[in-house]
Amino acid sequence: MHFLQAALLASSLFVAHASVLPITPKHTPRTLSKRAEPNTGDDFPEDETPVPNRLNKIETAFKDAIEMTSVVLSLIETDETIYPHYFDSADREEITRIFRDLNNNDEGHEMLGNFLVQTTDTDNLCGDQALAYSGDFNTDQPFIVICPRAFNKKAIGDLEGKDRGDEDATDFYAGCAEGGGDIGDNVSFHFNTLGMTLLHEYMHYDLMIQATFDGTATSIIDDPDGNPGYGSVAVYDRLPKQSARKNADSYAYYAAEVYWSLICQKEFQAPREGVDDADPDCGDQVCET
């Protein structure tokens, strides 16, 4: 089945009004079990203003990351349109398994509850292009640092204190150009919601993902084999497939393209170098997560 035909079929379950922006998916929001939701500490005060505050945004992003994996799982086994731009067909079974385990029946992998998500820049890595980074991912207490510019990234699901009908709603919610949003005809940095940033970081957690290719345990990293692995241009048809399967941004952009193809009801064109990877949140450069 052609991908867009499959997406149209799936949209009867997932989409309310693809022409309205910000898009509000009609399907039931994923409710993560308490143990499957990462922890936030004192870095995210509940009473921070204005609302939606950083805690509101990160809690929505937790759900958005799992939401994208759910849409991927509805289409990946028959996807011959988007998948080949990112991964080799020989790796489909293991890549599907990775998304399935992370999704865990829409509840999120139970080991997500091991994460501490913080804003304190422990390792001083929140540079000019960084959205987030993770550490201690071979332990049972990994952490993710969310850098300040990451909070400029938009949401998929509902944010507390921000109605989708508000005049400034498009500053907070990602959406399709047809409804006034930023997501146009090409794969681009506009796909990168805060939830997608988290999805990228989750891929680094070896104890949870446990990728195996060609019978060998493999970590999902950044810039594998010395190849640039960040951003839409790098991951779309450019990164060798042997490297792509162990590149975190390949998983994140694949999930995002599948999701927005469904929501926007279109097939996206290839990203344009210097345009679709020039993210203003990172000084018109490729953002790194």
UniProtKB/TrEMBL annotation:
Keywords assigned by UniProt?
Hydrolase, Metal-binding, Metalloprotease, Protease, Signal, Zinc
Q: Which cofactor does it need?
A: Zn(2+)
Q: Which InterPro entries match?
A: Fungal_M35_metalloproteases (IPR050414), MetalloPept_cat_dom_sf (IPR024079)
Q: What's a BP term from Gene Ontology annotated to this protein?
A: proteolysis
* Signal sequence residues: 1-18
* Span list, region Disordered: 26-52
An MF annotation (GO) of this entry: metal ion binding
**What family is reported?**
Belongs to the peptidase M35 family.
Protein name per the record:
Uncharacterized protein
What is this organism's lineage? Eukaryota, Fungi, Dikarya, Ascomycota, Pezizomycotina
